[in-house]
Input
Amino acid sequence: MSEIDVLISEVGPRDGLQSIDTIMPTEAKKAWIQAEAAAGVREIEVGSFVPPKLLPQLADTAEIVAYARTLPGLTVAALVPNFKGAENAIKAGAHKITLPLSVSETHSKANLRKTHDQVLDEVRKIVELLDTLPADQRPSFEGGLSTAFGCTLEGIVPEAKVAEMARKLLELGCDEVGLSDTTGYANPKQLRRLIKLIWSEVGHDKLTGVHLHNTRGLGLANALAALEEGITTLDSSLGGIGGCPFAPGASGNIVTEDLVFMLDAMGLRTGIDLDALLRVREVVTEALPDEDMYGFTPDAGLPKGYNAGGWGVAA
Ligand code: ZN
Output
């Protein structure tokens, strides 16, 4: 990652599309992913290997993974809820798989219908499967710590519990863990504290990314706090697609366009061409004309005389 400072991992085709009822046609998804990769986005979570009857929006994930693999330089990521999903993701050729473990066990039982022990069993089986693969066919395996900043069912989630789950996932053989603000509860101070805690427990190299939502408008503040601590991968979604059903007007994930504008203006390298990225919205709005797209930069446009790589620096 020497030629970039921050890796943007686009999650719109998964997190965004799973949150809306409209099913995006497979060809439109391919056009979206192709355009975003062409704009310089290096990692895209293209879908989730859940049963199609649960999420018909993502029923074509295997085809999308196979297509995305043909795009040069793109890391193709997919979510897997269990062993079966991981098997399918590996078969399809995903470069990276993420299994979400909800730190709130109540949430885990409600959403995945599994206790922590049952989820950890799936992780153990996935690692056994990964260990049978030749190194060049083995995807990287992340354990996503969801509801790490609070839960809509349990409320406060103890930080010690987040650290305990991080340790367990890594002991079982995950390559990395990620912190997910599934509920949009995180604030910058809490985020900094939790990053430091996890690092002190498992080491810096085992946590490099955070997954943020913008439910309460703190998405970019949280992203900046994470970056300043030393996090190098940020999840976001184009147009913040999906929104938040409980907070009309709020985007779902942090908006990729606004995030890239912030980083680009600060002189941080993402490898993404901001103008090209802004044009990708047209691909999505054309396929989903009735869905809201969020983001301030796309509406306001770039500042007059904008120069990437250190906007605002006195000449
Ligand atoms: Zn999410």
